[in-house]
Design goal:
The protein has about 250 residues and is of the alpha/beta class. The chain has a single domain, classed as Rossmann fold, CATH 3.40.50.1820. It is about 40% helix and about 20% strand. Strand 7, helix 9 and strand 8 form a beta-alpha-beta unit.
Length: about 250
């Protein structure tokens, strides 16, 4: 019965994005609460987090109007994972996606929920998107939840480097941030003890600590890089966020 109620709160959107230049699909779950922008993993679709039951793990918060989750599609296969084009073109395509998130998805989420800031979250490469977007726009971000994320895109640009790549590579741009809003963002880096991304999380944690950014490096004993781990992490982090978010 609980699952039936959960899925009745699902809304499918397919709208033209002027920033991406094509229609973008998105699922929205819930009717009220803190807005959560939840990214899929690398090259994942907008329905991936539903299919792998990450949404189901947070059903109680959704059904009780504590959070409203927005699951946008990705363009990873057209940007960072598109090895058929020059790295500068990959970065340019990502910036179009960034503009879609910043000027289309986020304003909708804030307007519909009446909140001034949103949670951004994601697993694996979705964790990169959450950290990258949240730290690019800290004044509009209440929390960042990365689960099994990695945060260095240099291996995706084949030696090419420019300002666009710099400003979308968290391990590079975070040390030089000057916006005081970064100190008001609740950052969680969740990672399994045996996750192959654990070193990336140690590195980003050290960067955040050196910057004086309060955060939680949550290392799960015995855990790996997989959905069962993330389904335990996500509702835990949401429960902490709903206690003190405006």
């Amino acid at each position: 019965m609980a699952l039936r109620t959960f899925f009745m709160q699902e809304l499918y959107l397919n709208e033209y994005s002027p920033n991406v230049g094509r229609h973008m699909e998105m699922l929205v779950f819930g009717h009220a609460g803190i807005p959560v922008i939840l990214f899929p993993t690398s090259m994942g679709k907008y329905y991936q987090n539903k299919d792998f039951k990450l949404l189901e793990s947070a059903a109680w918060f959704i059904n009780n109007g504590l959070i409203k989750i927005y699951c946008p599609d990705s363009v990873d296969n057209e940007s960072w994972y598109n090895y058929s084009v020059h790295p500068a073109e990959r970065a340019r395509r990502h910036m179009q996606y960034d503009a879609y998130l910043r000027h289309e998805v986020l304003p909708r989420a804030l307007y519909e929920t009446g909140h001034s800031r949103a949670i951004v979250a994601g697993c694996s490469f979705g964790g990169y998107h959450a950290v990258n977007f949240g730290m690019r726009y800290p004044g509009l971000t209440s929390h960042i939840f990365s689960m099994g994320g990695a945060f260095n895109i240099i291996n995706r640009v084949l030696g090419h480097y420019d300002d666009t790549i710099y400003y979308n590579n968290p391990v590079d741009f975070i040390p030089n941030l000057t916006d005081d809003a970064i100190y008001r963002v609740g950052v969680v880096l969740g990672v399994g003890e045996h996750d192959f991304c654990i070193e990336d999380n140690y590195r980003l944690s050290a960067i955040l600590a050196a910057k004086g950014i309060n955060h939680w490096l949550d290392i799960r004993p015995g855990a790996s890089h997989d959905w069962p781990v993330w389904r335990e992490m996500f509702p835990h982090y949401i429960s902490e966020a709903v206690k003190n978010t405006n």
